[in-house]
Structures are given as structure tokens and as C-alpha cells.
Amino acid sequence: MSSEIGKSYIKEVKIEGLWGRKDVLWQNIRPDINILVGINGSGKTTLLNMIDAYYRNDVRELKKYIGDFSGIPLSDEVYPVFYLRSYDVPVSDKRKSDSPLMQELNNVVIQNKEGLSFFNYRMKMLDYPQEAPNIQRNIDELFEIIDDMFADTGKKIAISKGNNSALVFQLDSDVISLEQLSSGEKQLLLILLKVFLQEKKPAILLMDEPEVSLHISWQQQLLDALRRLNENCQIILSTHSPSIFAKGWGDKITYMEDLY
Fold this sequence. Notes:
The protein is an alpha/beta fold. The chain has a single domain, classed as Rossmann fold (3-Layer(aba) Sandwich), CATH 3.40.50.300. 33% of the residues lie in helices and 20% in strands. It has helices at residues 44-55, 59-62, 100-109, 118-127, 132-149, 183-196, 216-229, 242-245; strands at residues 13-18, 22-26, 33-37, 68-70, 81-85, 156-159, 167-171, 174-177, 203-208, 233-238, 253-255. Strands 5-9-10-3-11 form a five-stranded parallel sheet, sandwiched between helices. The chain has a three-stranded antiparallel sheet with strand order 2-1-4, with no helix packed on it. A three-stranded antiparallel sheet has the order 6-7-8. The radius of gyration is 19 Å and the shape is globular.
């Protein structure tokens, strides 16, 4: 396990020659929440893509946009970086179990190559029995947050009685599988689980337009919910929706046009 000593959040991004014609300088990046806004084509998504590619050492992706990328710490000097892209799901795919969104959600719930899944987190109670009470408290808090956000739907999250590795929702006497959720419900659940699995450790979360498919009330609650799940997570997101920052987050806005 790598040590977090000496690591930091992203504090500054400097890009020379974006698209071969623009320099970007983003200083004083906040350690908690940063909301990028700007007109279509201003470069919000491109900037997030580049930050993600930089920390994955994806030179090919970076070369799509620039000649030089500097001014932010090397990847081993910052906390783990997670990138959540929104899934704008076609109507024909919204109920498909093999849609990209459903595949990603299954990975987070059951298993993925990094081992970061809700099922693996629960299994820690067997491997580390002394931590079991704390793990259960964290799960209870997660379920409370999810139930609060799903309150208007009447659905409540639960662990499947027939499959101990699966999550389901209960609506009165009906059991609803994750595949039966709407694309917005899947998207919301994916975001919440991703942040929960950071286990309240320092981390960096990039999100591109998280409002896609989310009901306005969910957009308004999203940042508060993420801070409850992990107040040590630095969030850098792009958005077109005022609802994301309507409830007291207006002072976290950065205008993309001001970075050129």
C-alpha cells in the first residue's frame, strides 16, 4: 500500500499551447470543491480529460490537445485521482444490462480489477473483525444518504437476500434490481458508491457534467451528499446546471474563460 505522506491535492494547472493556440493557467485550486463553468466549447471537458490523462501517464491522449503540459505535481505526489464521466444513455439502452453505465455500476457493486467494490468492502468485516463495527456504520450511513436522495421515489436500498454480493431496491413489497433503475438513478448510485469506496481517505474526484440524467432535486443535493461521504475528497467538476451549485456552493465557481 502506498504511503499518503507528503502527497497533496491538485493546487495548480498550467497548460501551454492547448489546441496549439491557448495557454491555460489555473491557480489556487481549492482543496474541497471546484466548479468549472463556461459556454460549450470553452474547454471544460478537455481540461478534465487532460488532468486525468496526465495522472494516468497517457501520453497519447495528451498529445491530442497540446505540445507541453506542466505546472501540476507528478502523479506520485498527489492523492489518488478518480474520473467520473457522465453517461448520456440513448433511450434504446436505458434498460440494457450490457450498457456502459450498467457495466460500470456492476463493477463498482460486485468487483473490478482494482478490487474497489462494495462487495469487497463488506468482506473486510470478515478479514478484519476488529473493524467490523466501523465498516457497518459506514455502510449504514451510505444507505441513509441513498435513501434520503431516493425518498421521492419510495425506493429503499438493501442487500439482496438471494445474492449476498448484490444490491437491490425495495419498493413496498417489490424488489427492484439495479438493471430496472432509470439511467438517472443508476448514474446517481454510481457517483455515490465511487466516493463511498474512497473510504473517507484523501482523494481527488474529477466529474464531467454530473447533472446528465439527474433530476434537479438530485443535482441540488449532490455536493452535500458527496461531502458527507468523504469530506477529504477534492472535487473538480464541470457543469452547465445552476442547480449543482444553487445550495450554497456559488463561491466555488471558476469560469473557464478566466483561465486563458
